[in-house]
Amino acid sequence: MKMKSLHIRLLPLAFVAIAAFPALSQKKSSNVLDLKHSIEDSAIVFPESFETDTRQLMERWYLKNYTSSNLETTTDYDPGASDAEIRRRLADLPTVIDMPYNDIVRQYIERYTKKGRKQVTALLGLSSYYMPIFEQALEEAGLPLELKYLPVIESGLDPNATSRHGAAGLWQFMLASGRGYDMEVTSLVDERRDPYISSQRACRMLKDLYDSYGDWSLAIAAYNCGPGTVNKALVRAGGDPANHDFWSIYYYLPAETRGYVPAFIAANYVMTYYPEHGIAPVLVTKPLVTDTVHLTERVHFNQIAAVLDIPVEEIRILNPQFRADIIPASADKPYNLILPSQQMHAYLVSEDQILAYESEKYARKTDATPGGDPNAVVEEVVETETLNPADPAPVEAAAAEIAYEETHPEEREATATPRRRRSEGTVKAAEAQPAQSAKATAAKTPKTEQAAQTPASSKKATPKKETAKKETKPKTSNHTVASGENLTTIAKKHGITVEQLKKANPKLKGDMLHPGDKLTVPAKTSTSKSGSTGAKKKKKR
Fold it and tell me: 0.85 exceeded by the pTM?
């Protein structure tokens, strides 16, 4: 929604360039005056704040705890008002900024007074807390107080509102414009969400825009879409920029910005004349009076809430600029904490206790010590395979593998020996050991060479083993897949290879398994020691 620029101070130069363009459609002031009252638009685009979920709005902590719902007195019926009546009411508003009336303004007023009646009820309740903050900032900047209703259409009075374009806070600053107006935005602190700081910066920005354009309708439009977009509209409209206002360049502006000034006028109207439309605000049951304390040490909201026995939600609603419930204060960079006035004395006398509460849990980690035995010798065996989407999480798989290896030390020893199995498509990298076991040597040597190298006593034993294998058919067993299991872990559990497991279950579709699946497990053979593949690093001790 927001496209605010940082180059506001360059606007006077932009006007010089604009004045150099030929007059494309020079308009007299009388024509402009007629246009602002007669303009029409059949493609209205309402601001994002108009789509606020009223139920969620009423669930906000402040409205639930400091106000009483008055929705039952807000009927679904709007008695309405004639065009002449609305025009007269707008003219009676004590405002410096012009509030013209036309068909577009009426559509925005009806959006509030008909479909958005309960939303207005909630906004009126929230305004009891936020409006004094806005008015104070505007008064200090010397700006018209009616600008206090800009956050109504910007954010729906939600300090944590974020638009689809990334604008944040009550006044909806973009990241670049926020930093351009000296607001801190980090992972822990976002001053765009601070009601006090953002209100002060918004006043600075509005003042810069008005100084550049000399017209509040153009300044308000530029606050929404950026001065660059307004300048382009002025160029397209032609003539002397000083003779233009928002309404004379209306059709040269983006659709969202076209509705911005009408929505601002509608907000001023509705927030003033809501009783005439049968809308009742929520009732403030107790005033929220706050105070501020200066912090120079890091503290977590949970520490404050636990010691002072106040809801953490209350701390959040009063301090929305702290994004992770952490106030990263230090002696070099202090921050302000806002609390209900009745809690301020308790905080001051309990500050040491607050900082000490579960301090180890909430302290920032500044040192890290590596774990494990520094004298341990670790041999890395790297394997590769296509990842299985059904595999358990990497940490869980690793834990299961370690547990299995510890209960089957003979297989751990076998897998520690570097080998290459081309049939399974794996590549294992490891330095060759100085000496290999007889079993590993035999696995690499052709049978004819084994026969020549094997002693006579061994030659007699070998045929007996092979004969026994031929006479006894391997037996299979069944395995029911448990949650978190995959082909690799199941193969390891039964001492076979993944390929053997797949071959015994030809109906398997890829590597996908589901809890409860039934698998046929072939008998363990002498060549199936830990024959699984995996896209991971195994550490062998």
Answer: no
